[in-house]
């Protein structure tokens, strides 16, 4: 487990691992970021969460034949100022914006 954390650069103090389960040769990890106050980059108003959606990211290449599936609980934030109404999602450093795979997958192939 520690090797996976080091490989994907998951050493982040805001990242919480909520659940780890094993189904056959697949390891599934559910994680989320700790809730912190967010401020709009445009108008500096406080942003509020519009809810959480779960994103499924695959990391199919592991040396021992196992597959890794990450379930990311990602929040969407919206600016509280009606004039601005800027929205953004939480970002994870090991996954691209709309990617279905981790960034380390391309390096391992």
Structural class, please? mainly beta
Give, in order, the helices and strands: HEEEEEEH
Spans with pLDDT under 50 lasting ≥5 residues?
Answer: none
Percentage of residues in helical conformation: 10-25%
Q: Helical segment tally?
A: 2
Overall pLDDT metric: 79
Shape: elongated
Distance between the termini: 20 Å
What Rg is obtained from the alpha carbons, in whole angstroms?
16 Å
- Classify the beta-strand content into a percent band: 35-45%
How many strands, which pairing sense, and closed or not: the largest β-sheet?
A: 6 strands, mixed
* Total strand segments: 6
Can you put this structure into words, describing what you see?
Strands 1, 2, 3, 4, 5 and 6 form a six-stranded mixed β-sheet that branches. This protein is elongated. It is mostly beta strands and 109 residues long. A hairpin with a 7-residue loop joins strand 4 and strand 5. The protein is 10% helix and 45% strand. The longest helix has 6 residues. It contains two helices and six strands; from the N terminus they run H-E-E-E-E-E-E-H.
Summarize the structure.
The chain is mostly beta strands and 109 residues long.
Structural topology:
Elements: H1 2-7, E1 15-23, E2 26-33, E3 38-39, E4 46-59, E5 67-79, E6 87-89, H2 104-108
Parallel strand pairs: 2-5
Antiparallel strand pairs: 1-2, 3-4, 4-5, 5-6
